Amino acid sequence: MEDLKSKLKVQIIEALNLQDTKPEDIDDNAPLFGEGLGLDSIDSLELMVLLERQYHIKVEDPREGRKILQSVQSMADFIQSKQPA
Amino acid sequence: MAAISPQSTFEGDVFSAPLVHTDSNLLTCMEPDYKPFIPANSLRRMTRVLKIGLTTALQSIRDSGVEAIGPIVTGTGKGSLQDTEKFIREIEQYKETALNPTPFIQSTYNSVNGLIALQVKGTAYNNTFVHRGFSFENALLDSMMLLAEGAPNTLTGAFEEMTAEHFYIKSRIGFWKPAATDSRQLYEQLSPGSIAGEGATFFVLTGKPGPDTKAALTGFKMLYKPTAEKVAAGLSVFKDGVDLILTGRNGDSRYEHFYQQADALFPGIPQLPFKHLSGEHDTAGAFGMWLAAQLLHRQQVPAQWFPMLKDIPAAANRILLYNHFYGEQHTMMVLERV
Asked: Domain B2-336 is in which class?
């Protein structure tokens, strides 16, 4: 799980071009939108694309997306829940 | 007004800057520090043309002293090529699935206008014209009509970028000179093709001159695919009182005869070319207009920018700008000192 979260942080920084942010600056449980990283609605679409490209997971329901993209922790939990046992 | 171009035109005493030249057949923009203009959170998402377009627009508003900007009217021949290329490449790479929204949104021509409006909280008329070599000119014409209808001012401009891929495509269809050409010798090397360029230029236009007005646009004509005779007739309209001619000469032997009409019609009137400064592109005419307005406002000619001229013309009061885009879209403008 820790490896997955570290990897996710690097991928988020790269996908959203967060130039002045380092992986260690992102708290696992800090909100990605609004406060925290201050991401916006276009970023949420970029993160959906990241999940699809990197983890082959398609989020069909946008309401589900809001919960999944709350934090790095929630994204990692979701990815792990979709991995084959 | 403001310009980001291959020359050092954005800030400071622009006429004292040295000439930037190239022998790669491509003049690339000198980019400023964007951070004083664009919030970091927005900057991270923008590609080059969006950054140069937005920053030039904001600098132009600052320079004008106008508090509330009215209609925003721009022209671009190609818009954001970098985003367009990325989006198209990803369609192929990801088999039309999982496409990033950002390059798609930013590949639309009116992205720069949208960003300007968001930044200045402008809710007035907002339009982008995409008409190849008439893109900026149509934006200018629309702005003049808006001012005639009572708009307090307009933010009018143009933006263009060149990418490696687009440069290659255009080289295949004869836009650029096949041999490496020193931009300082562009006008001596008459052969098919020119050198590429890019840039963003913005003006705040008003119907009546104010304390910060730099120049007045008093004549304007557009001709589409004219004969050389029609060009001569068009230029003749603006013959009276012109003391300097700015030409869009670009070293392309296929269309040089149009500029020779101006030579014949205005014997003894000094000429300045500007394509060795801006390079050739769809909206290079906007750079020509910026240069004309600067020459009128500053009442001097930066001699170091014109090493190909033996005699540097004196300050001008009435400039005729004649430019065309590969023989198709021809524009004549008269700018006067205020």
From this structure: alpha beta
